[in-house]
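Moderator note: this is an archived Q&A kept for reference. The question asked for a predicted structure of one protein chain; the sequence and the answer are reproduced below.
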Amino acid sequence: MTVSDEKPVKTGRSFLAGMSILLAIIAAMVCITGFIYCYLQVVNVDKQFARIHSLLQERELASRQNNLDMQNTINSMQQTLQNANAWHVAEAKYLINLANDQVQYTHQYSLAITLLQQADKALESSQDAQLLEVRKSLATDIANLQALSPIDITALFLQLHAMNDLVDKLQLPVQPLQPDTIPPVKSADSKSVWSVLSKIVIVRKNDANALPLVMPDEKIFLYQNLHAQLESASWGLLHENGAVYAASLANAIKWIQQYFVQDAEVTKNMLQQLSTLQKVNIQPALVTVSNTLQLFDKAIGKS
């Protein structure tokens, strides 16, 4: 009885022990499986982090390269802009110098105004704030030149030349020569003597307001001197010598009024034209752009 009773107990215990082991094995396997899963998840996450990190690094490198390229582009554009500004500034300086030469030496004010206006446009394109004072001075110079009355030297010279060609057409007065009367004489010898003397000596009576007669051999000198006066006026015009110009015209007017027929149309026309020319001031007001040039040099020295 005792022996048979112990066998079922051992069998039950063995079963329980086996089940415990099996459960332990299963639990261990579950743990291992979970560990392996967790490990794989961690490894997967690490790989993802590594991939993300690598991607971020690539993007960072790409961003740095883009920034570098952008900076190089900006630097290039700035250099190009600086070169363009330098070109505009140099162009403006050249144009202002040309305008100054026109004002001082040729007095071609219209051309000088055009050159200064082009210089102002060049400075506007440069967009340099330091040249603002230069542009203000340019505006003043342009306004001053536009206020001047232009002198057409060529037209005046051609007018004097045309008048010089008309000098030989001026008419000298012609007055009949009248022998002086003497008391009648009775002597035949006296009559013969007077007849001989009247052929040698001629007495002329002129009115107080009559023009002086010019002897035939003096006419050529009168015309030549009048030509010389008009040529002298032309010289004074071209050399901007107002004194010579005015004095020559005054002499020409005086001689024409003194020696030539006043009622003749050619005389009237010449006197009228000479009087008009006499009113022209061939020495214009002094205008320079030196102040603008000084401001320009000062502004360039600061930049």
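Archived answer notes: The chain is about 75% helix and 0% strand.
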